[in-house]
């Protein structure tokens, strides 16, 4: 089997400290030559104050690797998003992670009247702007708004049929959850590649709260592993590294050759994973 490859996800920083942390991470991680680095957009999307575009453009110059910009339906009107897409294309950013997003401060999602309602509409519109490489999101344990996995796969197929060629998943811990999902995606006739999204556990307590919001299950053995281990302990990092290497090894034996790492703008753990992926296989 060929050597596995990976992409990295970063988010636009909001403070001076997180700006420094992002640039430190990108300097340390770029030498591992990720396939691409993706830059998320905040809940408010690409609205004024959001620096996704700025960060994506600087990252493209500094990291010497392709950059993908995230775009969400909630963040602008149709025309605003299409203009942003044209700007990206002209700036040589040819990969978009196309998402619906969530309405800031609202429990229930209501599409904006002047916008794209769901990610499949955004994908189709982007494809009309130019021949972007398009990634979309997938949810191995179901999206919180979803009524059933069958319905969700139906909508996922719409995204693929509209032109998405890669499905990056929400984070998960049990590799079998991903493998079952990949089978269901294939059985639904979806040809796009399914890429596991892997989250380094930088802080177990914070991660469990986030996982609950995302509908990601945290296996019991992880609770036992991290019991009494504080985030700043070296043991915490070693355990986190262990989880990632187990996930990657297991998935690789099942033919998974591409991994998307959520860096959380922190290079320490991701750097070890990159080094390990590059040397172990
Ligand atoms: P969709 O694919 O549009 O689906 C959302 C829900 O609506 C699902 O329940 C689906 O079943 C349902 N649905 C889909 N189409 C239809 C339809 N036509 N009719 C009725 N129901 C439908 N959020 C950000 O704000 N910024 C980011 O940068 C960001 N990056 C992400 C990257 C990844 C890899 C992932 C997994 C998520 C990311 N998110 C981001 C979170 C994402 O925006 C939320 O999870 C959001 O709630 C759903 O977006 P989506 O693109 O998956 O939506």
Task: Describe, in plain words, how this protein is organized in 3D.
It is a single chain. This protein has about 280 residues and is α/β, with parallel strands linked by helices. It has one domain (about 5-280): Alpha-Beta Barrel (TIM Barrel). Helix content is about 45%, strand content about 15%. It has ten helices and eight strands. Strands 1-2-3-4-5-6-7-8 form an eight-stranded parallel beta barrel, surrounded by seven helices. Helix 4 links the parallel strand 4 and strand 5 (about 135-140). Helix 1 (about 15-30) packs parallel to helix 10 (about 265-280), helix 3 (about 80-90) crosses helix 4 and helix 9 packs parallel to helix 10. The structure holds flavin-adenine dinucleotide. Flavin-adenine dinucleotide binds near residues 118, 119, 137 and 197. Flavin-adenine dinucleotide binds near residues 101, 102, 119, 145 and 159.
Secondary-structure map with pairings?
Layout: E1 5-10, H1 16-29, E2 37-39, H2 52-62, E3 67-72, H3 78-90, E4 95-99, H4 119-129, E5 133-138, H5 149-162, E6 166-171, H6 175-187, E7 193-198, H7 204-214, H8 220-226, H9 234-253, E8 258-262, H10 267-280
Parallel strand pairs: 1-2, 1-8, 2-3, 3-4, 4-5, 5-6, 6-7, 7-8
Helix pairs in contact: 1-10, 3-4, 4-5, 9-10
The protein binds flavin-adenine dinucleotide.
Flavin-adenine dinucleotide binds at residues 40-41, 43, 70, 72, 97, 99-102, 118-120, 137, 143, 145-146, 151-152, 155, 159, 168, 170, 197.
InterPro entries: FAD-linked_oxidoreductase-like (IPR029041), Mehydrof_redctse-like (IPR003171), MTHF_reductase_bac (IPR004620)
Protein name: Methylenetetrahydrofolate reductase
Pathway: One-carbon metabolism; tetrahydrofolate interconversion; Amino-acid biosynthesis; L-methionine biosynthesis via de novo pathway
């Amino acid at each position: 089997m060929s050597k596995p490859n990976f992409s990295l996800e970063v988010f636009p920083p909001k403070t001076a400290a997180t700006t420094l942390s992002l640039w430190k991470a990108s300097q340390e991680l770029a030498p591992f030559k990720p396939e691409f680095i993706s830059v998320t957009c905040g809940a408010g999307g690409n609205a004024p104050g959001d620096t996704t575009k700025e960060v994506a453009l600087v990252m493209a110059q500094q990291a010497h690797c392709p950059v993908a910009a995230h775009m969400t339906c909630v963040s602008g009107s149709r025309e605003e998003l299409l203009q942003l897409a044209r700007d990206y294309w002209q700036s040589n950013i040819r990969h978009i992670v196309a998402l619906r997003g969530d309405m800031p401060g609202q429990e229930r999602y209501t599409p904006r009247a002047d916008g794209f309602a769901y990610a499949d509409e955004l994908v189709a519109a982007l494809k009309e702007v130019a021949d972007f490489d398009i990634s979309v999101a997938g949810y191995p344990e179901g999206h919180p708004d979803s009524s059933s996995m069958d319905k969700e796969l139906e909508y996922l197929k719409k995204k693929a049929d509209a032109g998405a060629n890669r499905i990056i998943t929400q984070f998960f811990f049990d590799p079998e959850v991903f493998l079952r999902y990949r089978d269901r995606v294939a059985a639904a006739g979806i040809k796009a590649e399914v890429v596991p999204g892997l989250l380094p556990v930088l802080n177990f307590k914070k991660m469990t709260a986030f996982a609950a919001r995302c509908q990601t299950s945290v296996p019991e053995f992880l609770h036992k592993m991290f019991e009494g281990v504080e985030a700043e302990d070296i043991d915490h990092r070693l355990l986190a590294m262990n989880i990632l290497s187990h996930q990657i090894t297991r998935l690789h034996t099942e033919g998974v050759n591409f991994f998307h790492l959520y860096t959380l703008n922190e290079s320490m753990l991701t750097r070890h994973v990159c080094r390990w992926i590059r040397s172990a296989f």
